[in-house]
Amino acid sequence: MDSTSRYLSMEKPNKADHLWRYTPWKKVHPTGDLSEIPPLSPPEISLGIIDGSELPPGIELKRGVFGEPDFSMSSALTNSFLHSSAETSRWTLVVDKGFSSEKPVIIDIKTGDLASVAHISLEIGKMSEFELITRVTGSSEWFGLLRTGQIQDGAVVNDVVIGLLDRGTMLRSDSIEICRDAQVRAGTVSSGSERTKSDLRYIMRETGGNIRVLGSILSAESMHLDHHIEIHHEAPETFSRLSWHSACGGSSRTIGTGMLTIRKGSIGADAAQIFHNLLLSKTAEADSIPELEVMENDVIGCGHGTANGPIDEEQMFYLKARGFDEDDAKRSLIAAFLNSTLSEMGGVDLHEWLVGELTLQLEALNA
Amino acid sequence: MSLLEIKDLHAGIDGNEILKGINLKIGPGEIHAIMGRNGSGKTTTANIIMGHPDFEVEKGDVLLEGESLLELEAWERARKGVFLSFQYPQAVPGLQVGNFLRKSVASIRGEGEAKGSGFREGLTAAMEALDIPRSFMSRYVNDGFSGGEKKRFEILQLMLLRPRLAVLDETDSGLDIDGIRTVSEGVNAAIRGTESGALIITHYSRILEHVQPDVVHVLLDGKIVSSGGPELATKLEEKGYEWLKQ
Fold first, then answer.
1. Which domain holds residue B13?
2. Which residue, A259, A260, A276, B48, shows the most beta carbons closer than 10 Å to its own?
């Protein structure tokens, strides 16, 4: 069955469904008519190096995705919808075995003004080593991003998606497999869109997989940013950390739901997830729901936690005693809070670039 | 005119009066010390001078060069030249030391002072004087710092910000003898030979052996009960505080 037929044949989820409890599918669907897959435009997509220098050989963004993606680990509803609607905008990032780049590579997605969608399949070759930024900008009312693929044996990849839409809704779904001994930092930086629904899933089916999932989320005004993150350990000696920081201002709402599973046989697995929420106003709301399913007894560790709170008044006083005025101190503490995860997403160049992007967002929100 | 004048200061927190009428004058270029037991009001005095919002002034005034500070926010006081070296400096994970220092110097001394070779050279010299490694710059403010590192970092800020009045709240606590000597040299470099002044709050006379105060005050139960020269600190070290109660 192709993805269009699959989506149309599926029963649509109701609010009792864990995944859709906080952001119903009806509010995320581009038209709200759940029985249709409306025509969506392809966004403008380009591949480059963040400083504009020439791409080294061994990396290419090709049109098309080869074969039907494996949706067994993902939400069939979201992924079949996105896959079907992205028929004219499917891409594969092909990274050769052993590829390396000292400077971060960027996939720049410009949505334009129209509702648009893209599917990018990541085929990251063995033992490759690089940093990848996927940046989404534009003014479209709706944008969908489906990312699927594999990070193959021994690859070391920092993979950051930064969503900076001016308005509208962003629906994102990631289904990424991390192969033997691959080391991945999967970062999400989110700010700008009025509504975001992300469903990010990472699976480690082979020994030695290692992933750090990091989020720096900034919401303001009446934004509604909902991120669901699943990390599945299905092999021995696999490692994961989820660290998610959300700063919520105005009357915005952020939701972070985590699902960590350790399947029987994943001996020596080591996993932890933590959500931190910084509440910047009395009307802002942050919900974090970490969940665990541990089927193996012989694990190194498996923990979860969540912490919510306003800006620390003693930190404010410390900065004010050093000459920071009220706004400067507040902005610096928000930036510091988000930077705690941002700085873990990659190396110096990537970090500086991300700080620059986030600073612009903070200044825009402050203005 | 006095650099700092505290006039009949009554202040406290959560409705509890801690300071019960303090009077103090510090002239330009002078270093004063306040000594006292735990709970006598030393840290409250420091917080009131800097403008901590939790503390309430019921009566009296605090003047910097004749201008009342009490209606000013902490950042306004800092920009007028008041500096507090915290007893327990706050950690700010995610805020890099280098960025913090640059922004702080820009706020207090002006944008031009936080740029270029002048800033870098001043920073390098202060770090060398305090034995602070360059790797400090990429760490987060006070995050994971040892007690000694925190105190050295406070004095690094003192040296860079060049305040009119430095209040050092138990800067010597948690430091070993070498640490006290290094920190004291930093205080002397920042204050001695300038028109600035300092108020050193301490339990012990050790730091006062390295930063010779002009006047020592003893604070007991929210009042200054005795003032004198540096010899008063030595006497307190030998005899304790009981004799002052009689």
1. 1-88+164-178+195-246
2. B48
pLDDT tens track for A120-156: 999 999 999 999 999 999 999 999 999 999 999 999 9
| Same-domain pairing of B174 and B222 | yes
Q: What is the pLDDT of residues A57-71, one digit of tens each?
A: 999 999 998 777 777
Nearest by Cα to A137 from A248, A45, A245: A45
Q: Is residue B153 part of a domain?
A: no
Q: Supply the pLDDT for residue B173.
A: 86
- Residues 6 or more apart from A285 whose CB is under 8 A from it? A248, A252, A253, A254, A279
CA-to-CA dists, residue A42 to A73, A88, A110, A241, angstroms? 26, 6, 10, 34
Residues of A in contact with B168 (CB under 8 A): none
Give chain A positions within 8 Å (CB) of B52: 317
Of A320, A326, A342, the CB nearest to B78: A320
- Residue B75's nearest CA partner among A351, A47, A318, A315 is A318
Q: Say yes or no: ipTM exceeds 0.90.
A: yes
Is residue A361 over pLDDT 90?
no
Which residue in A315, A321, A343 is closest to B84 by CB distance? A321
- Chain-chain contact of A335 with B94 (C-beta, under 8 angstroms): yes
* Average pLDDT estimate for B171-191: 88
B210 lies in a domain? yes
B241 touches chain A (CB under 8 A): no
- pTM (2 decimals)? 0.91
Examine residue B149 and state whether it is found in any structural domain, yes or no: no
